[in-house]
Amino acid sequence: MTKFTGVFFLLPALLTSCSCIKEKKEPTALVSEASPSIVKEITNHTDLDSNALAIVKFYRISCPACQMAAEPFEQLAQKTPGVAFYAVNVDKEGTLKDMHPIRAIPTFIALNKGNKVGTLVGFDEEELGQLINKLTGKVEETKAPSAVTSISSKEEFKKHITSGKKIAAKFYANWCGFCKKMAPVFEQLAKDHPEVVFLNIDIDTDSELAHEFAPQGVPTFHVFDKGERIDTVIGARADELERVIKELIAGKGADATVATPITSNTEKTVED
User: What is the pTM of this model?
Assistant: First the structure.
C-alpha cells in the first residue's frame, strides 16, 4: 500500500504540469503584484486614450509566448513614458478584439490617436522595439542588407531550385516563435557561406509551397544541389542545420530527413 500511495500523490502533479492541456485555468499573474504594472488591462475601445500614442497587446493567459512576453512588455512600458501600453485578454468579452481581428497571439498593435500604425504578430523583443520606434518616429539605424533572399511566389522558388546552384531554403511563419529563434542563425549561415543561395519562404504567402515543402510544421529547412533535394531539417535545431549546410558545400548529401516534434510557442488562433 505504501508504494501506491506515492503514485497517487504524484499523478495529480504530473497532470497539472502539462502545458498542452487545453482547459482554461487562471494561473498566477503574469507580472508580480509587488510593483504596480504600468500596462493597463482593458477590453473595450472606449478604454483607450484616443489622443495618445499606444501599444496594445492581445494575449491569452494560457499562451506560453504571451507569458514570455509579459515582463519585456512591462519593461518597455517603463522605458517609454510617451506611449500608453495596454493589454487585452482575448478570452474576455469586449469590443477591442472585435475591432482588431487577429489570427495569432500574442499580437501587438501600434495606434496613433486611434489609427493603426503597425502590427507585430508573435513576440520578438527587437521587432517590438522597432514597432515602438515607428510609432514614436524615432529614426532607426540603417541595417546591413540581408544575405537571405525572400521568395514571394512558387515560380520564383522553382527558378532558384533549377538554377543548378546549391540552395538552402527556410520555410517559416511570422506567428512561429521557433522560426524567429532560428532567423538570426539562418542569416549568419548565409553570411558565412556565400557559395550557397539562402532563401526565405513565408508559408502564409504561398499555401501550395507550404503544403509541398512544410507539411509537418515550421521552421522547415531544405537543401538542394543541382535541382535535387538532398536533405531536410525540421525544427529549431541550429547545430543540425549547420551540419547539413556544411555537407551540402562538401557535396555529401545525407539524403535523409531529420525531424523533431513541432510545437510553436505562439498560438496560431484565438479561437477554441
Answer: 0.53
